[in-house]
Amino acid sequence: MLKKLTLATAIGSIVMSASVMASSLTVGFSQIGSESGWRAAETAVSKVEAKKRGINLKISDAQQKQENQIKAVRSFIAQGVDAIFIAPVVQTGWGPVLEEAKDYDIPVFLLDRGITVEDDSLYMTSVTADNVLEGKVAGQWLIDTVKDKSCNVVELQGTVGASVAIDRKEGFNEAISSVDNISIVRTQSGEFTRSKGKEVMESFIKAENSGKNICAVFAHNDDMAIGAIQAIKEAGLAPGKDILIVSIDAVPDIFKAMMNGDANATVELTPNMAGPAFDALLSYKDTGAQPPKKIVTESKLYLPKDAPAQLEMKKDLGY
Predict the structure, then answer these.
(1) CB–CB of 254/222 below 8 Å?
(2) I need a labelling partner for 7 at 20 to 30 A (CA). Which of 106, 107, 148, 284 fits?
């Protein structure tokens, strides 16, 4: 009986210890901003995932400026948080501030984007999709759709210098390089925003015979695609028919566009990047286990037939 009581007490102590540990953790999250529906969903889902685990989550909106993110990280360090999550605006320039976090033994987790640093021990793990694969999936969809038809593509790139924009471009280029009939004729950053996507698409249309020379739009995110759709309509053309639309993120508005016949395909980027990061953090705090350097989420292609079900599933995710 004594042994059983001792064992029960020990197990209870472990469970209580883990519970107290999770509930007492504070995580600072430097979020890029709210430039897109997907970004808003990532923030909303992060709050839900933190609450599930009893973690106190502090979010700082950088308004798409790296200098604001660096200030936020330094503020989190000064507050003595248990960990820092960063969705980095750009890929470079992170070394000094991450050195500061390391000096204070505060682990750093990257969400949905990568960085370039000489010492990769400055961050614990990166939770991200395979962004190169996303671009490849989009490119392969276009290859399969246009078959042997000649196709001039205009590309709406994401933020200049962002790892996700670099990778999505690389993947799409790799895919279409396998065929001779598809080529990118115009490419420019739409800054991942709807308004800039519309503005850039308007310039593409003017430059390409009022849009008649354009076969397809490849947008690095859905919000830019929605902006492009608006520009195409205003030019008197039919998006989804006269000009094919393929993009990445799988936000509700692109599914609405699909149901209206205005968009053709999207590659999903899950907004739940924080959940796997929280789990890796709790495991590290509990056992000292180092997570893999990269935790890769799944990427799926969705077509108009998938739109109704996806809209229903995503309606409460904060988009």
Answers:
(1) yes
(2) 284
